[in-house]
């Protein structure tokens, strides 16, 4: 059974940094789409960043230049380095993995880790 567990959430002051981690277990195919998503209170879930089968990455415009997605294919861990954090980055952050390319969507989700940015 595929299991994703996020960690690294917490409270950060505006302008600070935080690194989120997501450990994926029970999944042997490591060359698949993986991504970070977030949902702020009262808002819909949105894509933050994705890394595709070939290693190409895409970012939401609001985080480009501040966030960096990366993965450790050996340890099967997905990371999200978040710098220059803003109050509007406050959200529950979820990691997810698909079964193939990102265009086919995500198949497995973690339960999320809360990031709160104070001004």
**Helicity, as a percent range:** under 10%
Mean residue pLDDT? 95
The end-to-end span amounts to 40 Å
Structural class: mainly beta
Count of helical regions: 0
* Percent in strands: over 45%
| H and E order | EEEEEEEEEEE
Anisotropy-based shape: globular
Kindly describe this structure.
This protein is mainly beta. About 0% of the residues lie in helices and about 50% in strands. It has strands at about 5, 10-15, 20-25, 35-40, 45-50, 55-60, 65-70, 75-80, 90-95, 110, 115-119. Strands 2, 4, 5, 6, 9, 10 and 11 form a 7-stranded mixed β-sheet that branches. A hairpin with a 4-residue loop joins strand 7 and strand 8 (about 75-80). It is globular, with a radius of gyration of 13 Å. About 30% of the residues are buried.
Write the layout of secondary structure elements.
Elements: E1 3-7, E2 10-13, E3 18-25, E4 34-39, E5 46-51, E6 57-59, E7 67-72, E8 77-82, E9 91-97, E10 108-109, E11 113-118
Parallel strand pairs: 2-11
Antiparallel strand pairs: 1-3, 3-8, 4-5, 4-9, 5-6, 7-8, 9-10, 9-11
């Amino acid at each position: 059974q595929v299991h994703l567990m996020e960690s690294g959430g917490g409270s950060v002051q505006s302008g600070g940094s935080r690194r989120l981690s997501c450990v994926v277990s029970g999944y042997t195919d490591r060359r698949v789409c993986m991504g970070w998503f977030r949902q702020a209170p009262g808002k819909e879930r949105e894509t933050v960043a994705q890394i595709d089968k070939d290693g190409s990455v895409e970012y939401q415009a609001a985080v480009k230049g501040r966030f960096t997605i990366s993965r450790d294919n050996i340890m099967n861990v997905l990371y999200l380095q978040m710098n220059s954090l803003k109050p509007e980055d406050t959200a529950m952050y979820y990691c997810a993995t698909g079964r193939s390319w990102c265009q086919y969507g995500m198949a497995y989700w973690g339960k999320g880790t809360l990031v709160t940015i104070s001004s």
